[in-house]
Amino acid sequence: MSSLRKVSDLDVAGKRVFVRVDFNVPQDSRGAITDDTRIRAALPTILHLVEQGARVVLGSHLGRPKGKTPNLTMLPIGERLAELLAPKVAEIKLCDEVVGDGVRKVVMDLRNGEVALLENLRWEPGEEKNDEALSKSLAALFEVYVNDAFGTAHRAHCSTAGMAKYFPSDRRGAGFLLLREVEFLSRLLHNVERPYVVVVGGAKVSDKISVLTNLAKVASSVLIGGAMANTFLAAQGKAMGKSKLEADKLTVAKQFLERCKKEQVEVILPFDLVVAPTVDSTEGRAVEVDAVPADEMALDIGPATAREFASRIKAAKTVFWNGPLGLFEKKPFSDGTFAVARAMAACEGTTVVGGGDSVAAVSEAGLDQNITHVSTGGGASLEFVEGQTLPGIAALTEPEAAR
């Protein structure tokens, strides 16, 4: 954290500043934005640069376009951004491409305090390939580089990593959003205030075992729910009926549980479950983990387990939660996930939520403001707490390359 230069420490007045933002927002079938959280999250950095008299150019991807895909244009994002920045910014100048003569003219004609938005970065095939030529072309247009897109910091793309090395170390830095993510996620790994409770749900052990293994080194307790808990329960010899589980990960799950026992890390698995015949069932019923019917499946943690999880969370000094505890998008199986969300909100310690479904649950429950930190990066936050080096963050401190 200390080695990252802050955007507020950069000399930006009168300079052309490229800001990598994450405006990959959800849209409906007509292209209307259904959740502008990511756009709002970037406003502090954008407004700081505007107030400092920078000439600001924003770049983001949107979706997974195959070339120049019209329905994945940045136009609606630019329109929403203009609404959010008004009246401090008169207009957002929209570019109809990523690089080229038209973009050069827009960038060079910007005045102090003005803002432009590039077209979808992934319209350029070289973006995701971290193409050297594209990185150089983009970097050549600007004098300062800022990364405020934590959600893509785990990707080594042109805009997140490749172009950063073409700026001197005193002309590249992290935006306020990225700095906040690094600050709070770092707290989960070092000198953690205890008791430290880790709550992990979701579908697959294979997706989360690295996270579990790394966090178990520092956690006081690990609470496991969701479909992945079925695999751990099966590894203990429980009959899970038709429950979704990973048969090829039973050994991995068993080894994790044995390692935690040896290292005296408490692991709490569900001791009751909500079961139903299918995922389309309109209701479920709670059963003990030893009594899952052969023709039914576990779709949520049970009420007793939910109470135990909530009790542990409320008493903690630090909590990290990633992944739903059941099929929370369907009402009969959402109680466990929302019980955890409420417990997180009631906890007086440091609470961090990371991962799309967990964030969605907290938002749906209207508890966002009661959580210490809600991460904007799903995959990025997971890789960070796994202990991995994220390319987008590393690029801010690596040696400068010749332009």
Keywords summarizing the entry:
Rossmann fold, 2 domains, 403 residues, alpha/beta, 15% strand, six-stranded parallel β-sheet
Can you put this structure into words, describing what you see?
This protein has helices spanning 37-51, 75-85, 101-109, 132-139, 158-162, 176-186, 205-215, 226-235, 250-262, 303-314, 335-346, 356-364, 378-385, 391-394, and strands spanning 16-20, 55-59, 92-94, 115-117, 144-147, 172-174, 196-200, 221-224, 266-268, 272-276, 285-288, 297-301, 318-322, 350-353, 373-374. The chain is of the alpha/beta class and 403 residues long. The chain folds into 2 domains: 7-179 and 390-394, Phosphoglycerate kinase, N-terminal domain (Rossmann fold, 3-Layer(aba) Sandwich); 190-385, Rossmann fold, CATH 3.40.50. Helix 8 packs across helix 9 and helix 10 (303-314) runs parallel beside helix 11. The two termini are 27 Å apart.
